[in-house]
Amino acid sequence: MTAVAVTAEERAEIVSQLAKGFPVQDVASRAHVAVVVVEALKAEYGPGLGELATAAARLRTGLKPAEDTADSLLERAAAVPRIAKQVDKVRALLDEMKAGIVAAEKAAHLERIVAQRAAELEKAKKALAEARGVKPTLAGDAAKVRAWALANGLVVPARGVIPTSVRDAYKAAQK
User: Fold this and answer.
1) Which of 14, 60, 149, 162 could join 154 in a cystine, given CB atoms 3.0 to 4.6 angstroms apart?
2) Residue 28 sits in the same domain as residue 54
3) With a threshold of 0.70, does the pTM exceed it?
4) Would you say 56 and 16 are in contact if contact means Cβ atoms under 8 Å apart?
């Protein structure tokens, strides 16, 4: 049989229309090709509508028949008596792997959510501090201010809030 000169897209569309039961003449008219081209494709892919539908799907996706998928290989292996017991073990391992993949995907998703919520929390804390008029300080800054105040004879509580006047004096001395 000679090769039919149509693109892969045209071929897929023609086979699809034939699979849906459209007459050869109508398919040729819609595809803007000669009737002999459509007849050649119909002969190439077989007269059965199921075969034509499968062929059209393969052409659209560009995939070959999936003869060697894990499931089909396991089915074929299960038919061999001496390795049939091993098939169940392999299936169990595949199921465990699938469950592990699903769990890892869920964990990654939850980690992204936690990171997002943590960022939102930090943003909210900063906004709250700004609304209260509290300026963020570095950890240990209070200890430095207390030490400076005591060294310079200022009264400062050992714990709690450092008076604004003491903080202002510390900042002025640091300039």
Assistant:
1) 149
2) yes
3) no
4) yes
